[in-house]
Design goal:
Blueprint: H1 13-21, E1 40-45, E2 51-58, H2 61-79, E3 90-98, E4 106-112, E5 118-125, H3 128-140, E6 147-150, E7 153-157, E8 162-163, H4 164-170, H5 179-196, E9 206-212, E10 217-223, H6 247-256, H7 259-279, H8 281-291, H9 299-313, H10 324-338
Antiparallel strand pairs: 1-2, 2-3, 3-4, 4-5, 5-7, 6-7, 8-9, 9-10
Helix pairs in contact: 5-6, 5-7, 7-10, 8-10
Length: 347
Amino acid sequence: MISRKKIFYPVSDPLHHYLRLYHQESKLPVSYDDLKYYAESIPLLDKFGKDTLWETVIYPQSEITRVHDNLKIVYAKLKAAGDLKALKHLYIERIDYCTFGNSHPYRIKIVNKYNDVYDYFYIKTADASRIYGLELEQLLSPNPVHYLVDGGTLVEEHIAGIPGDQFLKLIPRRPEYNLKRVAKEFVKFNERCFLRLLGDMRAYNFVFIITPDFDDYKFFIRTIDFDQQFYEGSKNIYLPQFFKENYPFVELVQKHLNREVVQQYQQEERAVLARRIREERYRLKDLRDVLVKDQVSTPEKIQQLGHELALHYDDAIFEKCTSMGEIIDRSLKRVLITTHTKEFRVG
């Protein structure tokens, strides 16, 4: 079971140093706490009139211009290396506050006044677990996510795609979708999450990217939630296949893929991940040096996860791990071992 309320872990000084070293930290003109001082809020409804559980917040008239100008600066730092001239034609249309979940983010809608094309970005409380998850996504994913940290504030770009739960509703209306390819991608996504120990990947925490090919559609799954990066003690939390919300995807796998094909896709994913580990080995070493000394879970959860992974892999080294940093370090090293590549030290 997932903890009802995940502990928020502050960003340590060594992690701040790492973020500055790799240009993920920047001085921002607005913080998460600054956005709390709105005058009122109204429920945000979707196009069908259903409550989205987000609230649109409204700031005092005397503060609106300042807040909006500062948010445009934040967006420029996130997307355009701080170049405000390139973004002078943008304006803030709406600021929404999320009333559920762990991070209670603010979502900012920013619009191009020339063509009405819009984008979103998020401002959240900086949680060390989430930052480690974002950093591993940056290093190990083919689609890195851009983010910035300033003190206790975290800024993230929006990851576009169709949420997994909405994609399931779409399937019956799209007979042209090759469900074997959907099953293949879920197997690979399941493997990616387990190897990097990213938990709580229920259908609404990841999105589908759909790309038309010359004779078919390709599917890729991206995570949009990083709060449960190596925090829980149960290994099944890191396997999307075990969440009831994902059972329809599991059924697709069982219907369209046999054991040998599943093993093939898992091995392909391990091989891709091994290449990324080799390419980013120096930055991974720096991250590992910070992480092994950082507290991002409880001793009980660390002990439980180490024990369960030791049994799963028949690898006693997991049992000896005393931090989540040591556990993820061993997990990534095993990727190299199982893909028959020369093992290297990331710490």
